[in-house]
UniProtKB/TrEMBL annotation:
Keywords: DNA-binding, Repressor. InterPro entries: DNA-bd_HTH_TetR-type_CS (IPR023772), Homeodomain-like_sf (IPR009057), HTH-type_Tx_Regulator (IPR050624), HTH_TetR (IPR001647), KstR2_TetR_C (IPR041490), Tet_transcr_reg_TetR-rel_C_sf (IPR036271). This is TetR/AcrR family transcriptional regulator. GO terms for molecular function: DNA binding. The keyword Cytoplasm does not apply. It comes from the Bacteria. Pfam families: TetR_C_24, TetR_N. Residues 26-45 bind DNA.
Length: 187
């Protein structure tokens, strides 16, 4: 029974954070949405921050699983990186909680939200770093600082997918893959 309550609390908190943001979510709201007493929440989580951390950790795992789901061993390394990055950004742009957190960070600058969004970015970079190091080890890409390459890949990808489209015709998936290959991966 206890794991069900815990799951209900996490689902309710995710819903509340997605609808109202981090700052406006209260433990009373979460308890009401989960249909449990407020004290029940505290048997599983010591505070709102710990509950938020649990939700973000789960979100990162889901995001990485989405990236892994599109990687194909028979595809070129650069294509796999492109597909993984595309899936991560697609996940981020479609996941209601991520949308709300990015909005809250822009509009209110909530420190806890900024820290968690930075944590998400750091996890994505760590994931990419593993892939880059594997690519270097296999000889798929030339040796380089894998953390810097991972950071640049993520930032470049975001810029090409999001920022470019604000004032230009959107790039195709193939164009983005070719740009990444040409600038950073040089196969």
């Amino acid at each position: 029974m206890a794991p069900d309550r815990r799951r209900m609390i996490i689902e309710a908190a995710t819903k509340s954070f997605s609808l109202f943001g981090y700052k406006a979510t209260t433990m009373d709201q979460v308890a009401k949405l989960a249909n449990v007493g407020k004290g029940t929440i505290y048997t599983f989580f010591k505070n709102k921050e710990e509950l938020f951390e649990e939700i973000i950790s789960t979100l990162v795992k889901e995001m990485i699983a989405e990236a892994e789901s599109v990687i194909k061993p028979d595809m070129p390394f650069t294509e796999n990186v492109h597909q993984a990055l595309y899936r991560i950004l697609e996940f981020r742009s479609q996941h209601q909680l991520m949308i709300k957190l990015v909005q809250e960070e822009k509009e209110m600058g909530t420190l806890a939200v900024s820290e968690k969004l930075q944590h998400v970015e750091n996890e994505i970079i760590a994931y990419l770093k593993q892939k880059i190091e594997a690519g270097i080890a296999k000889g798929s890409i030339p040796p380089a600082d894998s953390e810097i390459v991972s950071f640049l890949l993520l930032k470049m990808y975001i810029a090409l997918v999001s920022d470019w489209e604000k004032h230009h015709e959107p790039l195709t998936s193939r164009q983005i893959a070719d740009i990444m290959k040409g600038f950073l991966l040089k196969e």
